[in-house]
Amino acid sequence: MQFHEKLKAYRSSYGLTQEQLGEKVFVSRVTISKWETGRGLPNLGSLQQLASLFGISVDELLGSNELVALAQTEVKNTVRQSHTLMFGLLDVLCVLLVFLPIFADGKGHSFTLYAFYPIALFLQPLMMALVILPSAFGVVELALQSRLSEIWGSRILKISLTLSLLLLLLLVNCRQPYPSTFVLCLVVAKGFILIKR
């Protein structure tokens, strides 16, 4: 007997509608319907709630193939979320270009990476925008990391890497050696994460 057949049988034997079962395991009626028609499997948390509700073990609810498929899905989701978390943290670090002092002169003034080498006046707003944009994007990545689908998670990593590369190119073209080195380190770290993926 497959999971979807077992779920439907247990729900019927307990006299629950799909909506009532959904309320008990904190999912929608549509999700229960999807599970009962075999178009998806619950995550481990929902599976444990279902097993507890019906007074059975998770093994009794799932077949061995379904358990393996569920474990593989959970591992992929965990890896994707950790990559999004690391990219988000690296993107937020870009804001340090504005605030991180690298040295102080003899008069008590400190210089940030951004202010060390003068750049043309018309490039300053563009550079500041390209420093703030990845940082803001990193905050969004961190806020949405657990809510992203697999497709959007992959796209967000590519957008993050593209923003960092644009910032790096601008800093190199403006002859900003220290900020370029800092952003290059962030890009290399993202590259290692992507290669490891």
Automatic annotation (TrEMBL):
PROSITE patterns: HTH_CROC1. It comes from the Bacteria. This is Helix-turn-helix domain protein. The chain crosses the membrane at residues 85-104, 116-144, 156-172, 178-195. It comes from Sphaerochaeta globosa (strain ATCC BAA-1886 / DSM 22777 / Buddy). Residues 7-61 form the HTH cro/C1-type domain. InterPro entries: Cro/C1-type_HTH, Lambda_DNA-bd_dom_sf. GO terms for molecular function: DNA binding. Keywords: DNA-binding, Membrane, Transmembrane, Transmembrane helix.
